[in-house]
Design a protein that fits this description.
The protein has one domain. Helix content is 20%, strand content 38%. It contains one helix and five strands. It has one helix at residues 44-58, and strands at 2-6, 9-17, 23-29, 34-37, 71-74. It has a five-stranded mixed beta sheet with strand order 1-2-3-4-5, covered by helices on one side. The radius of gyration is 12 Å and the shape is globular. The protein starts with a strand and ends with a strand.
């Protein structure tokens, strides 16, 4: 798990093996909200790079939710 901070916000980037040689990606905030990608990535580093790119492009606030009921999914 990697911790990423921007604009005084913090998110946690988590990668997990998909069982087929690829990696799933999920970004969590500190409130129990998570954003997951539907498709897996070829390498763990590619997944982490995609998370950083999304955070920098969309803004970290995009990945901070108000309640723990929020779930968002992106295609890789």
């Amino acid at each position: 798990m990697q911790v990423i901070e921007r604009n005084r916000w913090t998110v946690y980037v988590e990668t997990t093996p998909d069982g087929n040689g690829g990696w799933f990606l999920r970004i969590e905030d500190g409130r129990g909200n998570s954003t997951g990608w539907v498709d897996s990535f070829g390498t763990e580093q590619a997944a982490v790079d995609a998370a950083i790119e999304a955070i920098d492009k969309e803004g970290i606030e995009t990945f901070i939710g108000p309640t723990s009921d929020m779930r968002i999914y992106f295609d890789a």
